[in-house]
Design brief:
Elements: H1 5-15, E1 22-23, H2 29-36, E2 43-45, H3 52-61, E3 66-70, H4 71-74, H5 77-89, E4 93-97, H6 103-114, E5 136-137, E6 158-159, H7 161-164
Parallel strand pairs: 1-2, 2-3, 3-4
Antiparallel strand pairs: 5-6
Length: about 170
Amino acid sequence: GAWQLDAALRFAMALGDMDYYLEQPCMAMADNARLAANLRQPLILDESIACLGDLLEAHHLGIMSGVTLKISRIGGITKTKRLRDVAVELGLRVTIEDTGGSDIDSAATAHLMLSTPEGSRFHTVDFMNWVTVSNARGMPPCEAGQMAAPTRPGLGLQARREILGEPFFEIG
């Protein structure tokens, strides 16, 4: 999302017919729309999709083949699931990620990705492996490039209170 429109256009022209996906080259929806009109490759939107209205606007403009939904940017698991479900109904490829990494965050990402219809899934990232401190137990390791979700109730993890500290409140 950091390119000016002219830089994104020059990049796309320089790569010609090369096979690639271009994700969120410009921040402004209008700039991405102008780019998409001149692009031969699929465009994936990410940072410019923060709510249902953004998703519907981009789809109405016909500028994207897929969407990357970040849980914290969208406002949590429930809102992300809603946007994911709409994106699937619109025929888009879906990536679910987040802006950081932890076992808890990765469990939520894995559950949302694996509950996405297989034909609509694009990819995700095992961000729990990008941090040096684990905040929960129970996240399955990635094997052969595949991420799995925990199978216990809820997110399927046991929070490490010695790392997270005492909760602000508990419901019991």
